[in-house]
Design brief:
Elements lengths: L2 E3 L13 E3 L16 H22 L1 H7 L5 H22 L6 H27 L6 H30 L3 H28 L4 H29 L3 H21 L4 H32 L2 H5 L9 H18 L10 H10 L3 H10 L7 H25 L9 H25 L3
Antiparallel strand pairs: 1-2
Helix pairs in contact: 1-5, 1-6, 1-7, 2-7, 3-5, 3-15, 4-5, 4-7, 5-6, 5-15, 6-7, 6-11, 6-14, 9-12, 9-14, 9-15, 11-14, 12-14
Length: about 425
């Protein structure tokens, strides 16, 4: 069902991924260049955008905790967001063959925008900074659920689209997610330095997070609708269309029992990559941000200490996700094995939290936090790049969505472990 083609076979173009090309395609056809790296920049920005809404909610948790005392804000937000997002992804996977990714992603962005605009409006028109107005709390939880639906639509679609393109675009999306964390850390440091840490300061800080997220979301809507009109993206979309046509000619419409069989084949092809991604996030979320921010203390840095640790993790996560253009570990078994090897972080962090006094000081904890971020970023990026290339081009989008499902499950399990087992 098609042949492989490399950049060399395509006339030496810089788009260097291996793809499965339909038989009817001219193997010597010139691959369009990504002029001014515009497609790369767009996919990087899309990666930044779809995590910002969640980051806005968790970064503003201090303000929500002030408004609604006695509620476990961070835990409720996490459970609602992840469960709804997980359900959304399951529906998308089940009906991916019947739906259009462009429609899904645009609907997702519209839901993100509605949710992000709703929060400051609820605060201005209803809550108005008053404590204990629990109608606002339930409305905010509903908005978080709406963001969970949007996340499944957008994240699954964007990663799925990137899986159909050369590897640099998947790297762009994944690096963008890390840049989102860095952006939030910059906002957190800036607002803490500028605004007093009283009720009014917390309120102003929260509004900054949501306003920035709204601006980035509007930018993402424009960028996404420009992306699939770019020549390099259209080229690979056309290849996918040819591959889909060939598959229909050979097998008929991929629906019902045939789709379920195809889906299980896709899951079987990426299951070990997905398992590696799952364990990466189980380990990371078991440690970060919970134990790192709540169980370590510094007499010198005081309440800046957890902020510095979060910023350090985010910066090194970004560094890890930008290393693959320099060196991509193409040995899948080694990458998956290294992902499981990150389980060693659990006993090492345990020693840092409960061992000799030296290991509980700022330098060892900061170094380990940086390594946690670096390995999280690099191996996530490697596995996300390699996995979609193990399936036929027409199924790369579904493979990408399946990988996002593994990632979200890993986040959920890691969050539960961090609550049930304090390091």
């Amino acid at each position: 069902m098609g042949i492989t083609i490399t950049a060399a076979a395509a006339g030496g173009d810089s788009e260097s991924a291996i793809h499965l090309i339909p038989k009817s395609t001219n193997n010597q056809e010139k691959i369009p260049k990504d002029s001014f790296h515009l497609a790369y920049i767009i996919y990087f920005t899309l990666g930044v955008g779809y995590l910002l809404p969640w980051n806005a909610f968790i970064t503003a948790v201090d303000y929500f905790t002030y408004l609604y005392p006695g509620e476990s804000i961070d835990r409720v937000f996490a459970i609602v967001y992840m469960l709804v997002g997980l359900t959304s992804l399951l529906f998308i996977i089940a009906f991916a063959h019947k739906s259009n990714s462009v429609v899904r992603i645009n609907v997702g962005y519209a839901l993100f925008l509605v949710a992000l605009v709703s929060v400051p409006l609820i605060d201005v028109w209803y809550v108005a900074g008053r404590v204990g107005v629990y109608g606002g709390y339930y409305a905010t939880v509903g908005v978080v659920a709406l963001c969970g639906v949007a996340d499944g639509l957008v994240q699954g679609g964007v990663v799925g689209n990137a899986g159909e393109l050369p590897e640099r675009y998947m790297q762009a999306v994944v690096a963008g997610t890390a840049a989102s964390g860095v952006l939030v850390s910059i906002l957190r440091v800036s607002t803490k330095a500028i605004y007093p840490q009283d009720a009014d300061g917390l309120r102003q800080s929260a509004n900054v997070y949501f306003i920035v997220s709204i601006v980035v979301m509007l930018l993402n809507i424009v960028f996404y609708n420009v992306a699939h009109r770019l020549p390099v993206v259209k080229y690979y979309k056309n290849l996918k269309s040819l591959a889909v046509t060939e598959e229909k000619e050979q097998k008929g419409d991929i629906t019902g029992k045939l789709w379920r069989s195809t889906l299980w084949d896709i899951v079987g092809s990426v299951k070990w990559y997905g398992s590696g991604i799952l364990i990466i996030y189980v380990v990371t979320l078991s440690i970060f941000p919970g134990s790192v921010t709540e169980d370590v203390h510094s007499d010198t840095l005081k309440d800046w200490y957890p902020i510095i640790l979060i910023a350090s993790y985010n910066v090194f996560d970004l560094i890890g996700k930008t290393l693959t253009p320099l060196y991509l570990m193409e040995n899948a078994k080694a990458a998956i094995g290294a992902s499981f090897g990150r389980l060693l972080f659990l006993p090492i962090f345990y020693v840092c939290l409960h061992g000799p006094d030296f290991f509980q000081t700022e330098i060892p904890v900061t170094i380990l936090t940086c390594l946690l971020g670096l390995t999280n970023g690099y191996f996530t990026c490697v596995l996300m790049i390699l996995a979609p290339k193990t399936v036929l081009l027409q199924h790369a989008e579904t493979a990408g969505i399946v990988l996002v499902l593994y990632l979200v499950v890993g986040l959920a399990i890691g969050s539960v472990v961090s609550w049930l087992w304090v390091l």
